[in-house]
């Protein structure tokens, strides 16, 4: 049974959303007092919880098999891994805490093959959900809420004050402190290396909050992450490490399915691959760097996506920026969503094609642009375009919104344009079988001409791919410089891709079909309230055969996966845990009164702060709690100037207790910083 929040049913138990809102502090003294009181409450609560817990799971544990009961109740509150000093041999001594120890004492009811700090222990089937949109139903359009006018006014005033004071400091600094401004002024006949105008935003705003960016970390970026503490005595121009560390809850990494683990079946497979192939192919694909692993990985990716062939590259950004110039050129038209990723924009600029933008996720505006472009033709000559390519993202990384793929495919069949879908953030983490946004909407992958994605977000690896028809891939293969001339993907990364993708698909073996029977019975009970399930395609449906298991000949003969990975059961559990966590957090933040963007099934959840000064305050206060939490803050130019936000990246490795802890932290800090509606 899904969570009460996941199915919108009222919860019979006490909820953190039904308490009365606290009075918002208005003075600096009240603000500091509120923060101190909240932190002391967390510390005292953590102490009472940890006195009854005897289980330990530290950084130096050698045994990867941990016996523990579930960590899903969300009733306990308490501490995490606070700062402690470094010891010899690169390890740390950590006291038992709620970040490295389950809240319930271990017993023999469940054996987990993962470390709790890397992948949280949760065996409660109530906290599972299936990520999909039922065909034939209306896809809900997400309406983005506007903030109160006083929030927007204070945001604009903040920028005005920042700009005025910054320019005054630059004016007097160039005259009175020339040594510090030497790189911004002509010197000894040399032109200024940096433009003071171009670097103004970086010097006057980003530098002040730079401690919230590029935080140095160590060890596995899984459910938790270890921060290396640092301080700055010159306003973030230079940093000094304090030789201490902080274990924190990690909602900042791209680890949607939790495959970023140092232990487990995939990690063991990577170790075997290193022993067989070494560290690198030491050449490009066009020369001597094409291993049998590259060919097997490309065949497996094509099967995973339901396409005929694929190309893999060693860098996700370069996959877009190097492929688009090979697809379109002069006298071609590209219609791009206004919020498309920077890699797409770079690739389109390099291509030389004419680029038109449409409003974000607005199918009607896309049709308007299409009709105008087709009727008018090329500028001046009005000749027909050589080709028209529409480029969208499946899941937008800063907005958390899903492209309405069924509606775009319907337009494609009417206006006969080519469709390019970037699934960097949706592949692996969306859909009942993890095949991405097309799987989420149950769209035939043959209706999309070019499919792009990365191996970073859901597979615990790196690099990207382009998939499509055999004719298209054969034509692109010698022209995509990111694949042909760049360093080939290393064997260790290839093994991680194959092992993780194979565990999501399941391997064609007797154990897979035995596990599938059990999984279908659970899904029927979980989805019994939904209508239209008979319209959902399966692996037996024509055109959707790729939803079945991976044939054994597509995997290396030496690759041995544990039963839970081989039969696909662990892959399905990871997908269902991620879907539950995403919907639970999105609806929870909305109920608490925050302005949240994106679709509720998206693992990316942006929470708006608007005012740029609230971004670093939120980030610092989250890391200074008894249970530290690492978040991502996003500001201009990645988002509009007055749309600063906090971006939560959820993972299947998180438990319900983790999400509850995150909601409580947002509730307390959001009240102090006036972030609620």
Describe the structure.
The protein is built from 18 helices and 17 strands. With 677 residues, the protein is α/β, with parallel strands linked by helices. The strands form four sheets. It has a seven-stranded mixed sheet, sandwiched between helices. Strands 2, 4, 5, 6 and 15 form a five-stranded mixed sheet that branches. The chain has a three-stranded antiparallel sheet with strand order 14-17-16. A hairpin with an 8-residue loop joins strand 5 and strand 6 (240-250). The protein is globular, with a radius of gyration of 26 Å. It starts with 27 loop residues before the first helix and ends with a helix. The model is unreliable at 1-16, 19-29, 46-79 and 85-90 (pLDDT under 50).
The quaternary organization reads as single chain
Largest sheet: 7 strands, mixed
Secondary structure category: alpha/beta
Mean pLDDT: 85
Unreliable stretches? 1-16, 19-29, 46-79, 85-90
Strand order of the largest sheet: 7-13-12-11-10-8-9
Q: What global shape is seen?
A: globular
The radius of gyration is 26 Å
Number of strands: 17
Percent of residues in helices comes to 25-40%
Distance from first to last alpha carbon:
31 Å
Strand content: 5-15%
Number of helices: 18
